[in-house]
Specification:
Elements lengths: L1 E14 L2 E6 L2 E7 L8 H11 L3 E2 L5 E3 L1 H4 L2 E6 L21 H18 L3 E3 L7 E15 H5 L1
Parallel strand pairs: 3-6, 6-7
Antiparallel strand pairs: 1-2, 1-3, 1-8, 4-5
Length: 150
Amino acid sequence: MKAVIQRVLSAKVEVDNTMIGEIGHGLIILLGVAHDDTEDDVPLLCDKIVKMRIFEDENDKMNLSLKDVGGEMLVVSNFTLNANYKHGNRPDYLAGAKPDVANRLYEYFIAYAKEQVKKVESGCFGEHMKLTIINDGPVTICVDSEVLRK
């Protein structure tokens, strides 16, 4: 399971010109589920993200976590994170989980996050979405549950 996390001042997601999720200060999570991911990857990845100290303290040092600052989270599914771009110019996405598995793990990630974070919003799995993001920093980090398992 891969996530691109971005620290934001605000973010929102729209489907068919209708806003379906919006947050203030916190993190946007672009979440990609691979074919070999399981339920065990969800707490591993989510706990790391929620506890990652990437928010400034009173001395302007990145020393506080999402929990510490009472931040919010917007989770958006993104199958393209599993792109294989090694050969040619058209990536393939064969490493991604089948849609039913990916959606189940995506929904589990959201439910798990809601146990950790005061406000969690989400995109709509399988839909074409438009994101509006006001980055803070910018701070952008790629997190992979495979790396965390080692």
